[in-house]
Amino acid sequence: MAIIKAEGLTYTYPIGTKPAFEDVSLNIEKGEFVILTGPSGCGKTTLCRCFNGLIPHFYGGKLEGEITVSGLQVSEHPIHELAQHVGMVFQNPENQLFALSVEKDVAFGLENLGVPREEIRERVDWALKMAGIYGLKDRAPYELSGGQQQRVALASVLAMQPEIIVLDEPTSFLDPLGALRIFKVINDLNKKLGITIILVEHRLDLTSKYANRVMVMTKGKIVLNGHPREVFNSEEARLIGVGIPKATRLYQILKAGGVDLGRVPLSSEEAYEAVVETLAR
Amino acid sequence: MIKIQDLHHTYPNGVEALRGVSLEIADGEFVAIMGQNGAGKTTLVKHINGLLKPTKGTVLVDGVETTKVSVATLARKVGFVFQNPDHQLFSETVEEEISFALKNFGYDKKAIKERVDWALNLLDLTEYRKVSPFMLSGGERKRVALASVLAWDPKIVILDEPTIGQDNRQKERLRQFIMQLNKQGKTVIIVTHDIEFVTECKPRIVLMANGKILAQGRAEEILTNQELVNRASVVLPEIARIFHNLAEKGFPRQVIDVYEASRILLQKLGEPS
């Protein structure tokens, strides 16, 4: 069953003259790992704001068409109710953190839901460990680095154990090893716990191998929607200017030069294997 | 010429951010400072434009100690674009934002207009001239911050995480733009986590960890050394990872660029059988 279903969705901000996105239809099944990408200003962040009801409830404006998330019609259910099903991690963590300690920030959502004290402690500890910031739990979020704040924002969402997690460039401030670890955590949440992941990203080298689907938006429309191998190897993706993984680029350049690696690699590991197989042929 | 000698910096809260950094950057160099969160990268570059003063050690810009001149004087020479543009922008319109420093530096009206036009055009912002910077997207605000610094034509340009929030096309433009600045003889220093971006522009790499410089050298040399980069919380770029594994099959190891990788592989794999 579709966990997110949109039909002919069009949205215009209160101050907007033209829609931020137009006539978007999509069907995301439970347990999918979807990457949403496309040029800046294409409407992907705006689209994500519909998934937890920030649009229309917080931003106002005009939302046309239908969208249901976890079986709830977004326009009919308030943000706090949708938030129990959908967790959001935003691009700029400063906008999301407010409590006096990391631990309190991560516990906040659970306290609001009236979760028993002991369970809060367990879930908060688990989330802090998953995000790799257990050692920072007594620190104030505002005195942390951008990368550490990004982990706090992720832990806050993890603690809620939602069915769907939407992440908008969640590692942009993290050092490369930190980013790699977070992507592995996100992949574990998806593969081990079955949480549906929607990841908004420009940097696709480290993430493509985890996804079963890529959606590319441009100018307010979803123009490509399919398996990462098909999407990244398509001529359209190149023309739109999607950041095609280096491994896939390598495949394409080799193919243009007359060498076929046999299958489209999405990561350095896959590219290495394909090269070794081709060498042995 | 930037000359940093045994630089230490301890913040008022007691955090020892830099613990003995020595570094020389020649005029016209292009350098990327990389390393783990909290390694002291931003603290280091803030010493170059005098925003921070050494706790111990010296920082010389063109032979002058940064403690001997005001931040404003130094700013004409050293332009600094912050990681988060919101820490930098404050004006009501993009145009005013870009003119602000020019006015402070005492340029006349005509020169200000010319330079603002030039910077707007350069960063593809002309259509936003009269718009509030706060109405723009994160990536656009970043470009406004960059335009406002480049407008006064500093000799040294420092960019803290310039690729955050930029899509692939904008990144490619930024890359061409940095290369162009560098070609014009400007010293360009970037602080970045964007390992794939670095493989495309190949600056000299300064790798930092725990308030110290761990290693420095050519991008091909530093970014293909797995043990070294991991110590700085950096990972191998994708192409380097492929060649790291291929090295035992007789391939060169120091490859980070997709085009060079293709040339090498085409040579080995492309022979007609």
Number of strands of chain B: 10
DSSP, total strands of chain A: 10
Strand arrangement in the largest pleated sheet of chain A: 6-7-8-3-9-10
- Poorly predicted regions of chain B are none
Backbone CA Rg of chain A: 20 Å
- Assembly annotation: heterodimer
Main sheet properties of chain A: 6 strands, mixed
Helix content of chain B: 25-40%
**Please, how many helices of chain B?**
11
Broad structural category of chain B: alpha/beta
The sequence of SSEs of chain A as H and E is EEEHHEEHEHHHEHEEEHHHH
| Total helical segments of chain A | 11
In round numbers, the mean pLDDT of chain A is: 92
Please tell me what the overall shape of chain B is. globular
- Helicity of chain A, as a percent range: 25-40%
Separation of termini of chain B?
Answer: 55 Å
Description:
The complex is a heterodimer of chains A (281) and B (273). By secondary structure, chain A is of the alpha/beta class. Chain A has eleven helices and ten strands. In chain A, a hairpin with a 2-residue loop joins β9 and β10. In chain A, α4 packs across α5 and α4 packs parallel to α6. The longest helix of chain A is centred in the middle third of the chain and has 18 residues. In chain B, 39% of the residues lie in helices and 22% in strands. Chain B contains eleven helices and ten strands. In chain B, the strands form two sheets. In chain B, strands 6-7-8-3-9-10 form a six-stranded mixed beta sheet, sandwiched between helices. A four-stranded antiparallel beta sheet of chain B has the order 2-1-4-5, covered by helices on one side. Chains A and B meet through α6, α7, α10 and α11 of A and α5, α6, α7, α10 and α11 of B.
